[in-house]
Write a structure and sequence with these properties.
Length: 126
């Protein structure tokens, strides 16, 4: 399996909240970072953060439009789509993955935070 195949299989599983499968593609000591936020370390921290974010959605799909592999680095341009309250919201994302021994060691996503924050359901005041 190429590094590109590893990243694509990981993204497909993670988008559907299949963390058991997604976890098979990442190193135990993965560094995961949504840029603008501090990096997280370890498989459990990555899975917990993904679950926290995706639990606000009824569905998600991450559509890769362009991708490139160079040695241990995979980069992609994609649209992460989230269904919230029956409405789909698209978030353009650039992802950078560094692999070691066929596993994702580092995952960084770059995106415009206000795009997704503005699409989130309002929290009732109280």
């Amino acid at each position: 399996m190429s590094n590109l195949d590893v990243v694509n299989a990981f993204l497909k599983a993670a988008a559907k909240r299949d963390y058991e499968t997604a976890g098979t593609f990442v190193a135990d000591d993965i560094e995961y970072q949504n840029m603008m936020l501090p990096p997280l370390h370890g498989k459990a921290a990555m899975q917990e953060t993904c679950e926290m974010l995706l639990s606000m959605c009824t569905d998600s799909e991450w559509v890769v439009h362009r991708e490139v592999e160079s040695g241990d680095v995979v980069m992609n341009e994609r649209v992460d789509r989230f269904e919230m309250n029956g409405t789909w919201t698209d978030l353009p994302v650039a992802g950078v993955f560094v692999l070691r021994d066929g596993l994702i060691r580092s995952w960084r996503d770059y995106f415009d935070l206000p795009t997704i924050l503005n699409a989130m359901p309002a929290v009732p005041e109280g």
